[in-house]
Structures are given as C-alpha cells and as structure tokens.
Amino acid sequence: MQAFRLVKVAGKSIIKNKMRTLLTMLGIIIGVGAVIVMVAIGEGAQSQIEQQIQNLGTNMVVVTPGAAQTSGASQGASSFSRLTPEDAQKIKNESIYSANVSPVYSSFRAQIVGGEGNWRATILGVTPEYQVIRNWDTTSGRFFDAREERTGAKVVVLGKTIVDQLYGDRDPVGERVIVNRVPMQVIGVLESKGQTADGNDQDDFIVLPYTTARNRILGRWSFMRQILINTYSAEDIPLAQEEVRAILRESHGLASWEADDFEVRNQEQLSEAAQGTTEVMTALLAAIASISLLVGGIGIMNIMLVSVTERTREIGIRMAIGARGSDVLTQFLIESIVMSILGGALGIALGVGGSTLLGSTMGWATAVNSETVVIAIAFSAAVGIFFGFYPAKKAAALNPIDALRFE
Amino acid sequence: MSETKEVIRVQQIRKTYEMGKTKVHALQGVDFNVQRGEMVAIMGASGSGKSTLMNIIGGLDYPTSGSYFLDDIEVNKLTKNQLADIRNQKIGFVFQGFNLLARTSALENTELPLLYDRSKRVKKHSEAARQSLERVGLGDRVDHFPNELSGGQQQRVAIARALVTNPSLVLADEPTGNLDSKTTVEVMALFQELNEEGVTILLVTHEDEVARYAKRIVELRDGKIIKDVPQTPDSAAKDLEELLLRRSEEQGAKEPETAQAD
User: Fold this and answer.
1) For chain A, first and last CA: distance in Å?
2) Domain of residue B250, residue span
3) What chain B residue is nearest to A5 in terms of C-alpha separation?
4) What percent of chain B has pLDDT over 70?
5) Residue B262 domain-assigned?
6) B50 in contact with chain A, both atoms CB, cutoff 8 A
7) Extents of the domains making up chain A
8) What is the tens place of the pLDDT at every residue in B174-192?
9) How many structural domains does chain B have?
10) What is the C-alpha radius of gyration for chain A, rounded to an integer number of angstroms?
11) Which strand ranges, in their side-by-side order, compose the sheet holding B6-19?
C-alpha cells in the first residue's frame, strides 16, 4: 500500500517535470535503442549467413584440397595437393554413406560471348549430381544429364546474373554462347540464389559438365576446387566424413604418420567458421552500444543528484510533515527506476523501429531478438537502481531543519 | 483524553551546539507546559533560542538534556522514524515561507501529510483535504496551484495542510512574516477562530503585532524563559473589520471591501 502511494508520488513528480524527465531519459532511450539496433544487425548478419549455408544444400560434406603443407620435407616437390577425378570416382564407388558425389572444377573468370554482348564469369565444371546436392532448380530449360557428362557435350546452364547481362528478359535456352572461344549451347537457366553476406554474387556462374570444362575450356589450368558430397540423412554426416577421409588417404597413398592433405568439412563446420566472425562482430557492436547505456545511467545519476539539491526544500517539507527517511529514499529511487524503465521502453520502441527501418531502407538483414529486449529492460531497471541509489540516499540523509532553511 | 490535559510538558530542556571549539548554549534549562486549547506565543529576539525550542517541540530535533512530553509521550526518547510519525500525526506545521510544493494543487498539498500517515486513520484523503480547505475558507480554490494564490491564501493552504491530520498541536513559526499587515490580521483571525474550535496553537514570533492575539506570552532571552504571562487577547476579527472600514473610507466607495492582498 505504502509502496503504491510512493509510486504515485514519484509518478506525479515525473509528470510535473516533463522536460527534466525527458532529458534524463534520453540517455537511456538512446542507449537501449542503440544496443537493440546493434544486436539486431549482428544477429541479422548471422542468420543470413546461416541461411546461405543452408542454401548450399542439405546434408552436405565438402572436400577441399589441403592448405599447402609445411610440416616437413616429406611433402616433396608439390607444395599443395590436388583432388583428382579419380578421387571423386573412388568416393562414388566405395562410400556407402554418400548419396551423390560431384567434383567441382572452377576457373578464374572466363570470357563469355552471346546474346547482346560479353561478360566474364566463373565457370563451374560439375556432374549432374551437383544439381541434386545443391538443391538448385532450373527456372527454364534443364540441367545436363549423365550422358552429356560422359561425352563432354558442349552444353551450358547459365546463372541468373549472366542471363540478365547478356539476354535481358529474353529466355536464352537454345541460344549459342561462346565460352573462351568454344561455342556452346544454352540448355537451362538456374534459379537465383542471391548474394552472400560478404557480397559475392551466387548467380554469376555458368555450369557445364566437368568433362567439357576440363577438356575443352580450362585445359591445363583446370583445377578441382572441391568435391561436393551429400548424405542420405543428417546422422550419416559424421560417418560419411570419416569414410571419405579414409578413402582419400588410401587414394592419395598417405602413410599412417602423414597428415591429411585435404580437408573434409560439413556444413556446420563451415557455418561455425562464419559464425565465429559475426559473433565477434555482434559482441563488439553490443559493447559499443552498452557504453552509451552506461553513459545514460550516469546521466540519470547526474540529474538525480542535481534534483536532490534543487528539491532540498521539498524534501524538508515532506520530512517536516512526517515523511521518514525511508519514504524519501523510496520516492527518489522509484523516480529513477520509473524513469529508466520508461526510457528503456521508449528505447526498445526506438530500437525496434530503427532496426525495421534499416532493414527496409538499407536492405540490411536485421533480427530483433526478444532476449535482447528482456535484457535491455532488466538492464535499464538495474541502471535506475544503481545510479538512483546514491542520490536517493543523499536525499534521505538530509536533516529536515537544514533542508527547510535551504534557499 | 480529558479537556484540561497538558499537551506539552517541557522539563529542564537544554540544547548545546558545538561550533568548532566553542560551545553554544541555545537553551539553558527551559520549563513550560501548554494545556489543551491554549494559544501561546513564544517570543524573543533572534538568538534567544526560540527557533531551537520550536525545533525540539516540533520533533525536528533532540534536546541535549531534559525531557519533552507531547500527549504524555516522551518525545526525546523516540527514534528518528518514531519522531517522523509524531510530526505526522500529532503536530501541524505552519511556516513563514508557506512551504507548499510548487506545481501541486492546493488539494494535493493539503493531502500530503495523509500520504505519510501510517496509522491510516483517514481513509478518504481528498475528502479530508477538501474539508480542511473549506475550514480555512478556501473551498473554492482547491484546484489552484500555489503560484495562482495570494500570499494569504497560500498560508491558508499551509494551515489547511497542518489541520488535515487533526493534530494535537499546531506549530506556527513566524506565520505572518511574509505577509502584509491586512493579511496578517486575516491569518491571525483564522488562528483565533480555529483556537475557538479547540485547536491548540503555539506561535513562534518576534512581533508584538502577532503576539497580542495570543492568550499567553512566553518570552525567551539567552536560552531562558524570562516571562510567562497570560493575557486577554485582542480580537483579530474586530481589528480586521476596523481596518477594512478605515480603508474603504480612505478610498471613497470606489473599491469593493474584499480586495485581495498583493
């Protein structure tokens, strides 16, 4: 009952001094707003990266050539290892956990001439299974088949960006394009996958049978960038990784004491690496924003201290007519808590509004996390208690006689 | 509570302040009693100890030695919180500077003591405050803010605030110090009226103009009572009438007689 009345007193005092209240709350509003926007940006980036890794395909295992090994003379003349079509074939033949296997050959940008002009794009040489692994549909035409792969047919499937550049709105299926001076036939267009978090265009590719890519276009520059594998289920992933590793060690003729000259990773491991970076970024952004929240808290303390001095006479009156020290303490404490929670609530509105605005105008991925909102409220209440306590204590300790005499 | 009971019994009160190395003896053994229904003026020049005595009687300060009973409660032995409750429930303060809360209506100012009343004797705060304001003649000003009221009206609000808890004692410290002569008489008439209704009033003043309306004069000098005599008070109501009559004669019949204070 008593507490409720003091809340009313504090509420009245806050309403009667609108300007002072607003200025006091401003620090908290901006602080909480900044924390929410910053964390939303960080989380947004994180979920976007996760989305992209999911986009790569499901239950995927990626084999990449090992980074150049420098662990001793045993590495011999070749400073970095290669994956070969035989490796891919061996995995396909021997692995029981692998459902689909596709080598991925890729080039630096190759010249493509067709339609209305020319363009440089990355060439991917793969098997038809690549489409299944990456879960990548065609919006027009079709992907190449096993026969075309075997015979090294001169057929290509174009990414969305290339179609946009060379053909505009026209459907290029059936048209001829020249890829590094080799004429090819367009048989399909891939659906768009958008951009990656670091700004790479995922549609700026042409895809063709790896046999064609290796033999007719890339030639001696051909280089197998990775082998993509998918498993039948998520549970099979670790088993497939072990199995593939064993197969490749045998295929590469590695002795038991030699380290792997390749890496076998799953999607989770890929996303972990990416997440590590964004987590650091999120933490950094939140830390910077937290400083403004701290400054906001100090602002509350500052105003409350000034307010105690300014209101010395009021405190004296209240004490003379029977307020106990604890009543005055509670009143001032409630005032600062109410102000900081109110500021926190407005800050949440600002933060959510700001994140939405950034998301819609700048096209940034933002995700407001309910956990952040709860933490922001709790934190602003804590700021109110922590920074309000000292001024309130000071007010409660006033001697009513001196306070009444104060001019 | 019988009618003739003592409200205040002060016995051998001493108060010594230490100002650095020197000791200041503000009160040096003060004895006096106040009966229910009295209207006493405590007089004395500045430095006589009357403010110190008022602070002790008002429960704002402790004596260095001696005892002070208010309604048979030995106030000097109470804790700070108990003292706050005594101030709240048994004493009504009226100050020289009115001491109303700014930006707070007359009604809310009057309600204020009830907010801190832990006995919860009064259930309907705003009703009690309204009645109290009516009692001081401000029934039509309840929603006004202090800056919309004249000095005399502000002091009436302060008196209403002092009365709202039905205290055993109204303690008025230079209540007319900030008021002009006409408003002074008005406020004193109000005090006399309340005293007629049975309210015990203790005035602290240095002005004879104010003290002459009290039923008894206690004079302090150098921390001691040098005079404690009953007197026949002048009637402030009668003085006010005469004052108004004289003024309206001076100004011809131009101004209406109910002019407000400046």
Assistant:
1) 33
2) 6-255
3) B115
4) 94
5) no
6) no
7) 3-52+273-405, 81-260
8) 998 888 888 999 999 999 9
9) 1
10) 33
11) B22-35, B6-19, B65-70, B73-74
